[in-house]
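task queued by scheduler; priority normal; single chain, no ligands, no partner chains; default sampling; output format set to structure tokens
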Amino acid sequence: MNGTLKNLRIIDFKILKLNENASPKVSEKSYSVIKREFNNPQNIEEKNLLIFENNLSFEITDFKENKFKKIYIVSNKNEHRSIKLSEKLVKFKSLLMDDQSQRLKDKSIDCEVIDISEIKNIDNCYALYPNVGENLDYLNSNNLKINFLYRNLDQLAWQYCNKGFFNFKNYIPKIISAFN
């Protein structure tokens, strides 16, 4: 950067008059913790199950022993995303879904890969909770009322997620010991 431009920037900041003794903004708004229940239903046998792209390891879920009528692996391509993915990533995710589908078929589990827009056509279903992201955003923005299934790990950990990471990290040993 040449000296003239550098001097110009310094001059610009000197011209700007800021209140160096401003008091902080104070808000009377209160943000209370909302305690949500993340309970699983008792009877999920013979229901349909939706699995999203961020949970493609059904064989190690808490629900692997349940007998679902059919498992739908949900593909969320760029048409329904606010943040577009590269075509290479879309292809990679597609291959992962095909792999999960094949592993389920190898276990004689009826499954099918569907587009996220087809969820509205599936009755009597539950979904593995997709957590945050484009899949949950799609469900919420399209007002799709889906019954979710929550992993035991998430149910245990979420009770400590109310005061930021530094508070949460104190509970990590307790969470880990619960699964040993």
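post-processing summary
- The radius of gyration is 24 Å.
- The chain has two domains: 48-149, 152-180.
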